[in-house]
Request: fold
Amino acid sequence: MKRALLLAFVALALQVGAGLLFGWISEAAYQTPRRLDEAMELPLTWTGLVFAGPVALLCATLATQHLLQRVRLAHAVPAVLLLCVPPMLVGTLVTFALACVAGWC
Amino acid sequence: MDVPEPIAAVQPASPPPLRVLSRRTAWSTTACLLLLSFLAVALFVERPLLARPHQHGRERRAAFAIRDYVIPFQQWGTRAFTLPNLQSGYGTVDYVTLRSWGEDRSDEVASRIVKLLETHDAVDLFLLAHSNPFVDWVRKVPAELRRKLRLVYNTGCHDLRQKDLWLGLGARAYVGHVGLSESPVFYVYFLRRWLRGRTLDEAVAEANARTEAFLGSGLEGTLSNPQATVASTHAERAGDGALTIGAVP
Reply:
């Protein structure tokens, strides 16, 4: 149970963290004067996309599997719906965005 | 006198069996949830396009994109999406973000476009800005070079009205929006299809259809009248509708 919750919170934290990172990048890159080197803008963005996308998606997937296999269904189902499905959806969307900007799909 | 019978001791109920899923069922359910997530994205946002961006003759064409002065988050998002996508289909890409409202960088922009036109067979322009005066900026490019301008896509609201000006300048085709538009939605769908070799007419038609589906679905929750927004976001093409990214002037 603890492991599953930890994984779910890691997924959520990665996505919130990436959102904050994107906010910081945009402010640092497009406020005057520019505080972020132009060459670093896209690599940092991609790093955020990787953590909020595939990495968070993996964490949410493992959390879901742990909850369903180790916790009584009466507790597992609401936990999955509340804690795992949102980061799974966001992770899927971000992974898709990452694949799009990389020209993979 | 009856003696009350002693109350029988209540046996504690045995605990219910732990209802957990087997390993296989847990994995299957998780996989189904993952699949549903991917389907939701594909149905409501965008579907994967299996074709890769068109590569043939890539080194002979260039793209120039310009973003106007908006909030930093929008400027960052536009560049993060546009630059890698354009680089996947064009040999050279130049990208400019304006730093203040009403800033006149016409001389600089014209000279950067000239540089691209001098070294490539065709240059496409992506004007990622609200209603804009860029047609006057590009007028500073010598006429003999402007003949190499190929596609001009303009996100500006109501800027379909510039179509004759752009075609008159030498562009082979122009795409603009009819009214007050949610053009960033259209732009994402359009650019992905254009880069993959669809004809201009196909790319515009598919992007219009996807934009209509997305805006009409209510996912863009800030719209007060989605149907009116869909109508005014509609994009139209002027000029050569058979144009593709691989076409040589």
User: Anything to note?
Assistant: The two ends of chain B are 116 Å apart (CA to CA). Chain B touches chain A through 40 residues (CB under 8 Å).
